[in-house]
Every structure is written in structure tokens, then in C-alpha cells.
## 1
Amino acid sequence: MDIWIVQKQMIIIFVLILIGVYLYKRGHLSNSSAKQLSWIIVNITNPVMLLVAALTEEEKVSAGEVGIALLAFAAMYAILIAISYLIPVLLGVERDERYSYRMMSIFGNVGFIGIPFCAAVLGTGSLIFVSVCGFTINLLLYTYCAEQLRDVAAGQHPDEDIKAGHSLKDMINSGTVLSVITVVVYLLDIKVPDAIRSTLGHIGNCTTFLSMVVLGVSVAQMVPRQVFTKWKLYVFVVLRQILVPVMLIFIMRPFIKNELILYTLVVLSAMPAGNMPLMMAKQYGAREDMISAGIILTTVLSIVTIPIVMLFL
């Protein structure tokens, strides 16, 4: 495995985060503008990025294999959701911070780190399965994650008009709609004019830069000890980014005969904490300091943890 693939992505991430820090320190971005950017990322650029992946995928796999991958990732996230309630209890996390650990346990950085890493290490044939994972995670983001963070925000700001709970209408949004469209487009091999694909590509390509800049705004308001002196986060990294992926290998291997699906699932389960829960927390007004710290630390340590997990494949 070429460790440089991981290191290169880490360097890019940190440079983009530093741009966000700089813009905040210089007064070009504020908390309110970062919240507005978060809405754009959550509702427009991130869903479109997934759709673009389906439109540009050249090597097709059968509908049956896509179905197997979908079931595999659904099972993986069911396990991760269960684990997300266990880990904070094991670590003795305060009740009002447990939601942050749940978000970090479930939602990894499948897009920016997962896509190039899988392409480089597992080959481009794995990208359709990364897209299936993206479809699954998007459904969870715009339903489970959104509901959890709205409830948390409502509890943290009882005097503000923040709607708690969810309804069927809340689940029908740009994220879930485009996730369904993405799978349909891929399976039916629908072609679109180059002008439309190019336009969507420009929109989706904004996701990485904007999300890292917004993360930089949060980082700019933190001091190093808020990130690197939290011992519980270090234990969390060992549990979530090493032990859990290794456990998934042994759980899933008897049921998944396609090794590429299994390898893609395990690699994506080992990714550091993703940015989308942070974007949503900022959008809904929930405290995001612990999520920000977790993203930074898990991303830094993933340079070590991902290669360790790969040794078991």
C-alpha cells in the first residue's frame, strides 16, 4: 500500500482548513456566514457531488452486485449506530457530549479521503461501491443525523424556535432525493448532455473546499489543548478506527463473497470522522466544538490507523 496516498490527502485537508482559519482571523468569514455556507454544503453541493460520481462512472457492475453492496453497507451502518451508543458509555463521556461521539462513530470521511484512497489502493472498480456507501450515508445524514442534531439544538437552545423531532416531510429533501436519483441513474445507465454534467461537476467540486473552510472557522476558535489534550478522543480513535474496522472484517467476511466489496467496506469504515455532521450541527445551532476536535484528531491519526487496518485485509 502506498502510504503517500493517505499523507497527500492529509496535507490537502490541512491546507484547506488553514485557509478557513485565515479567513476567519482576517474577518472575511464569521460564524453567521459559516452557518450559511453549511446550509449550501448540506443541501446542494454534497448531494450533487454524489450524483456526479454516478454520471462519470465508466466501468459498470451488475445490479445484483450493487444490491449486495447496498445490503452490506446497510448492515455496516446498523452496527456502527449500535456501537455509537456503546463507545461514549465505555469512555465515561458526559451525557450532553455523547451526541458528538455518536456522530463521529457513525459518519466517516467517505468523500474526500475515501474516494481517492479507494481508487488508488483498491482500484477504480471500487468507486461504484464507494458511491453505494455514499448513497447509504446520505440517507442517514439527512434523516437520522438531522433528527439527532435538531433535537440536541432544541435542548441546548430552549428559547429559540428550533424544531425537534422529524416527519416524513423532513426526510424528503435534496440529500435523500438526489441519493435515490443517483442509484437510479447508475443502474439505468442514464446519459445526460455534457453541459449538464459539467455544470453539476462544478457544483459538486465546491464541497471539499467549502466544508474544509467551514471547519477552519471552528478550528480558528479553538486552542490546541482543546484538541490534543483530550485523552478520551485518543481512546476513541483506537476503538473506532482500529478495533471496529477489524471487527467488521470478521463479521462481514462470511457473508460477502465479493472481496472488492468487503475491502471497500472495511477501508471506508476506517476513515476519520467526516465533516457533514459538523456542517449540520452548525446549520441547526448545536454545539460543534467536540465534533471539530474529533475531526482534526482522527484525521491526523488516520495516517497511522488506516495502514494498521489494511494489514488485516
Note: The two ends are 11 Å apart (CA to CA).
## 2
Amino acid sequence: MTLSPERIGRVAVFAALVYVLSWATAWLPNVNLSFFVIFSAGLLWGLGAGVMVGAVGMALWTVFNPYGPAMIPIMVSQVVGASLCGVMGHLWRRMGGMRLLGAMKLAALGGAGLVCTSLYYIPVSVADAWVFQPFLPRLIGGLGFSVVALISNLVIFPLLFPVTYHLYRREWPAQSA
């Protein structure tokens, strides 16, 4: 990934969007548009940009959120998990997700939402259970929160994809024709 000023600006804007959307949805437990923004960055600008948007945006959120900063192990797991959403966006594009049509594309986007959510909540749930103990009851108790996030992203990814597709057509006109 080349770090042109244009690319740095895009990563910065999307990382700020992750932070702002996390604030905007803080009152809805585990419903977060940030996963989709990070996924979109990976899809639009590649692996490096997606990972950077996830890492920077989530680092900002986990340090400067209304509930106080997270403990270090949880913070690290949040940053890593969010970065993996950018990886998923890059892989989705590389595996031909943009060439799918109709219901297949919607199903693939819903699947991407489930995978991104899982890639985030698995390390975060393990870190949370490890920090707050007892491990297994805490891990099992957190599953309900993860289910809410899974269901919301199953809907959010296909619903908001037209915005990403519009950006994709502007960024890559030759490939979207």
C-alpha cells in the first residue's frame, strides 16, 4: 500500500467515521455501524487501508468513549478484531463479491457481516472473560450480546452496501462498468 496524501486522507476520514458512528450508536448496545465502515475501507482501498481504518478508529473509540477507556487486554482485542473487518472487506472484493448479483450479493454481504462481527467478538469476548473471570461463565454470559451484534450486522451490511457501491464506482470506474 502506498501512503499517498490522498490515501492517508481517506484512511483518516474513515477512521474518524468509525469513532463518530461509535458515539452515535453508543446508546444501542452492540449495534454498531463501524464494522461496515471498516469493511468498506478494506473493500475500496485494500488490505492496508482496511486494517488501518479498523485499528485507528477502534483505538480512538476504545480510549475516548463515554464509558471510559478499556483495560489493555480488551483494548488490544478490540483493535485487532476491528482490523480484521478491514481484512474481510479486502478478501470479499478479491474473492469476487463485487461480481455477484441480486440475492447472491445480499446473502454474501450478510455473511460478511456475520464473519466481521465474529472476528471482532471472539477475541473481545475471550479477553473480557480472561480479565473479569470466572472465564467460562463470563464467556457464555457474553454470547447474548454477541447475538445482538450478529443480527444487526446481518441487516446493516446489505442495507448500507449501496453507499459503498457508489464509492466503488467512483474509485474504480473501469472495474464497475
Note: The helical segments are 5-24, 34-45, 47-63, 72-94, 102-132, 135-141, 143-171, 173-176.
